[in-house]
Amino acid sequence: MATAAPPLSFPRSRRRFVQAGLLSPLGLMLAGCDGFRPPRLAVNGVDITGAAYAQDFRLLDPDGKERTLADFRGQAVLMFFGFTQCPDVCPTALTRASRIRELLGPLGSQLQVIFVTLDPERDTPEVLRAYTAAFDPSFLGLYTDVEGTAQTAKAFRVYYRKVPTGASYTMDHSALSYLYDPQGRVRVVLRHELSAEQCAADVRQLLAKTA
C-alpha cells in the first residue's frame, strides 16, 4: 500500500487513503509550469496555482449531458472524487462541502460542488443523483465509464483501487478536494482534515481575488 507524502497527514479510517504524490515537493515544483502566475493565495489549503494537472474533464451528469469546467465559468468549483458506498470519508467531505456553502451566506450560490465517482460500475446516474441530493440539491454527481474514470483520475493525480471484501469490494482512494476559481483555473487543494470554516475562508478569498 502506498503512503502519503511527508507534507500532509491523513485521517485514520476503516479504509486506507494515499495522496499519491500530489502535494509532494516534486509536485509543488511543477506548479506554475503553464505560465499562469496570478497573485499567490494565503490559504488554509495548499496553493497549487498554475499546476499543470487537474486542468479539465469531460464527464457525464445524471441526465447524460457531457460536462466540462467551462460549464461552470463564473463560479468557484469544489471537486471531490469518491464513491457512494464509501463508509466515512466521502460523506464527511460532502457534509463539509454543504457546510461551506452555508458559511458563505449569499456567496454560496457562487460555489458549485462536484462529486466524481470512482466506482462507475455501481454508481449509476440514478444512484449519483440521489446521493448528491441527500447532501445538497445543488451538488452535481459526474461519471464516465471504467476506462474514462482511470484516465480522469490520472489527469487529476487521484489514487484509487478496488479492494475485495468477501463477495463484494470497497475502494481505496485519495481524500483531497480541488478548488477552482471562477475562470476555471485550479488554485487550491483542500486537505481532508481542514474544517468547513477554514475551507470557506479559502473560497471567500478566491472569489475576492478573482472578482
UniProtKB/TrEMBL annotation:
Protein name, per record: Photosynthetic protein synthase I
Family designation: Belongs to the SCO1/2 family.
GO molecular function, one term: metal ion binding
Residues annotated to bind Cu cation: 86, 90, 173
Record bears the keyword Ion transport: no
Keywords: Copper, Disulfide bond, Metal-binding
One Pfam family cited in the UniProt record for this chain: SCO1-SenC
InterPro entries listed in its UniProt record: SCO1/SenC, TAT_signal, Thioredoxin-like_sf, Thioredoxin_domain
